[in-house]
Amino acid sequence: MTEPSGRRERKKAATRQKIADTALRLFLGRGYDAVGIRDVAAEADVAVTTVFAHFASKEALVFERDQDFEQRLTRAVTDRPPHEPLIPALHREVQALVRHCTAEGSAPVRRMIEESPALREYEESMSLRHAQALAAALAADPHLSRSTTACRATARFAIDAYALACRADDPGTTVDEVFRMIEAAWEATAP
């Protein structure tokens, strides 16, 4: 995540992080369904309106790095050097994101998400949005020259590679396997 530059931005970012950390601690300690927004606000010592100023919903508190995730994926496309092939750049970024979701201590969060229908639904809608943003970045790159369908499918497969790996016994191997398929499909759609 990029560091906010001004004092006000740093203070807002610190408040946001404090709310997210507090929420996650409460959710893991008491159970997601047992904790309300008012509980989070009280424990973080902020107003309920402050929580909603930073997070659109209770589910968003769990996925507080959602926007950063999406930006990292799209930047893997838009910020890569012109000579660098797309799929290896995207593969590296997804591997890095998977390392984060499978880091030590992440299992209780993954279990909480899997056990909550509301969180699973939110995660799926988030994945669709990420795939749309990634597909738009692919389609906008004039050097890639692929069809809209190829861009959408590639984006969706990349997002699915992440989702599958976060739940796999061997996350790295899972990402590698899916990206071999993605690369083959991408090459097959070349003009």
In short:
The chain has helices at residues 7-30, 37-44, 48-54, 58-62, 66-78, 86-101, 107-115, 117-140, 148-166, 171-188.
Describe the structure.
- InterPro entries: Homeodomain-like_sf, HTH-type_TetR-like_transc_reg, HTH_TetR.
- Keywords: DNA-binding, Transcription, Transcription regulation.
- Residues 36-55 bind DNA.
- The chain is mainly alpha-helical.
- It has helices spanning 7-30, 37-44, 48-54, 58-62, 66-78, 86-101, 107-115, 117-140, 148-166, 171-188.
- Helix 6 (86-101) packs antiparallel against helix 10.
- The chain is globular and about 55 Å long.
SSE arrangement:
Blueprint: H1 7-30, H2 37-44, H3 48-54, H4 58-62, H5 66-78, H6 86-101, H7 107-115, H8 117-140, H9 148-166, H10 171-188
Helix pairs in contact: 1-2, 5-6, 5-8, 6-9, 6-10, 7-8, 8-9, 9-10
Name the descriptors:
single chain, 191 residues, mainly alpha, 10 helices, 75% helix, 0% strand, globular, transcription, transcription regulation, DNA-binding, TetR/AcrR family transcriptional regulator, HTH-type_TetR-like_transc_reg
How can the largest sheet be summarized? none
Based on CA atoms alone, the radius of gyration comes out at: 18 Å
Mean pLDDT: 92
Helix content: over 70%
Could you give the order of the helices and strands? HHHHHHHHHH
**Structural class, from secondary structure content?**
mainly alpha
Tell me the β content.
under 5%
Number of strands: 0
CA distance, first residue to last residue? 36 Å
Instruction: Kindly report the oligomeric state of this protein.
Output: single chain
Task: Provide the low-confidence segments as ranges.
Answer: none
- Counting DSSP H or I runs of 4 or more residues, the number of helices is 10
Approximate shape: globular
